[in-house]
């Protein structure tokens, strides 16, 4: 207990250790938050979902905070719905059977670009007769543009850009420009100010109602942006955290512990056991690690946990077994081991209670420093197209972005967001491991 | 003489090691029967083709011909021993793999249209060797030079900076690659995004060479950056250990020139350690090159393997694994040989085991 306290006090003397621990704690916090707010099955469902899940989002939208850094402000996407009250709705009954439903949404438009698309989704309650709506658009300079008049069927959708009648009325193929442009300006520039969408509906029977959802797809979206399938990148960035941490920590823990135990067994029993372990290590060094992992991924399963298992198995007999071996060879000769042998301790007792505990100071820094390697390995596998088919991970985002040519097309956010998360995670563990190494192995401090 | 004996011994050990390694690869690949499928497909392709191209069979009725093909395939499968138990078959596959008889690809072809996996892979080898060779040589000499000069200035801010940067090596080369592409290709547009040469390639050989060199810069530097700081840190530590030896103090006391001390008394005894460290690094780097090639569209073995994953071309995947095993073994052997050259203990014979 005292040694632990001492170690922690020692640790606090290193700014890099504090910084590293803070990063790791933050990442752990994000991981817990992700796991609590998004259940596993929900994360998989959302990530694998298509248009039906993500229809509200624009494609290839950069994160909304881009506007803080640019002088030309791009429109930020939003969606409002009368069902949850984000778009106001008033129902006035005129007659036992006929009522008017007024839905108005006004928003302030202060951007320098035009949006990608605007869509209205109607969700009426129909008994027999279809309700009727007329949609109008009021610009900041007071022009009122008739958008559409239509009977709304169950699940009716109105896409502003793709309506031929509206295009004809506006004398323009580009509906978004026609609706938002300043009529006075020569080049199409958006008119800034308060726009109003007015939907007036009429229902023709008792119990009938209209709900509408207005989706405004700008060029920017949310905290993390979207990808080519309109998926919110916040999902994989958040949910990738617990996966990356689990992969990294389990990989490092499994590999280091097993390597150490095997090295200890080899040195203790010596003879053919030791010889065998050394031969396996030699063979393992010429086994092309990634190629074998690729083979397993292609032939058997791409599940991230199988990959992790194979990785651990292939990494046990690595170069570090030789390092541990040379240290065990030294401690095997120490007098406390001889004492244990004299009182008749069994082989396994000596290995697990005497040999290995002495190595813990060496093990802990090595373990922490090894975590980034495995965190990056997950991303490496994903970039090779061997990512887990169902899980949202950071590597999958980089892979999608690369396959889609994000860097050629200037969609840097798509690659940079997961890359920076990978980097921060790696940095946290590397800094802590580095400081731990200096605390537990002070001899190295001078050299 | 001793050198030859040592080298010979290492060669034999490695040959055994490679054989075992390749055998393991085959075992892993065939757990799902994939090697069997490769063999059977090859037999079927060959026989169908030879019968289709043989004028003697041209006038046969389709069903008779189909029957003939089936019989011939059965006979050939029998002759090749594909019906024997796996333990026997696996050794046949091993001989095939060791002699680079890697079967035929399912979808992929080499540049001149051959489906031989061996040809597909071997024609990619020069590009891979160009990238690995350049970056590893640069890495070795740059790290050696910088580590030596840092060990002279122990504790300076340069030294501290290198130590602080050494954890950067936990990120793989492709990771630096995407940042390099972003900065130098996408934003500044001074270097190409990827590939080996421009398209169309320059006709003048000098211009061609320069063009390849221009394409080489980014992938090579992402590999170098990803490992250089850790190597410098490790090697500088080796140098520091050896420069505090008594005989170095003695040499200083004798008044030898600092350059001579450095070369003869510090660099020389440290080299075996450095070579061992470098060998482990190079072995680990082979993995890094597969993804680096993919990210930079470098037409080497790595990207072939990546494409094979996409095409689900099992013979190419198994074949590249075997080629990589060979490459690893050759690398190990070459570094062992260099080790033997620089380690005086090998020549005088006190303990020829590393």
Would you kindly provide a written description of the structure presented here, covering whatever features stand out?
The complex is a heterodimer of chains A (447) and B (354). Chain A contains 16 helices and nine strands. Chain A has 447 residues and is α+β, with helices and mostly antiparallel strands. In chain A, the strands form two sheets. In chain A, strands 2-3-8-5-6 form a five-stranded antiparallel β-sheet, with no helix packed on it. In chain A, a hairpin with a 5-residue loop joins β2 and β3. In chain A, α2 (15-37) crosses α15, α7 packs parallel to α10 (304-316) and α7 (234-269) packs antiparallel against α13. The radius of gyration of chain A is 31 Å and the shape is elongated. Chain B has 14 helices and no strands. Chain B has helices spanning 2-30, 34-53, 62-79, 86-98, 117-122, 125-152, 157-165, 173-187, 205-243, 246-254, 258-295, 301-311, 314-342, 344-348. In chain B, α6 (125-152) packs parallel to α9 (205-243), α6 (125-152) packs antiparallel against α11 (258-295) and α11 (258-295) packs antiparallel against α13. The radius of gyration of chain B is 26 Å and the shape is elongated. Chains A and B meet through α8, α9, α13 and α15 of A and α1, α8, α9, α11 and α12 of B.
Structural class of chain A: alpha+beta
Helical amount of chain B:
over 70%
- Could you tell me the strand content of chain B as a percent range? under 5%
N-to-C order of helices and strands of chain A = HHHHEEEEEEEHHEEHHHHHHHHHH
- End-to-end separation of chain B in angstroms reads 18 Å
> Which term fits the overall shape of chain B?
elongated
- The number of helical elements of chain B comes to 14
Low-confidence stretches of chain A: none
Spatial order of the strands forming the largest sheet of chain A: 2-3-8-5-6
Q: Mean pLDDT of chain A, nearest integer?
A: 87
**Describe the biggest sheet of chain A?**
5 strands, antiparallel
Structural class of chain B: mainly alpha
Basic shape of chain A = elongated
Which residues of chain B form runs of ≥5 with pLDDT under 50? 350-354
Q: How would you state the average pLDDT of chain B, rounded?
A: 85
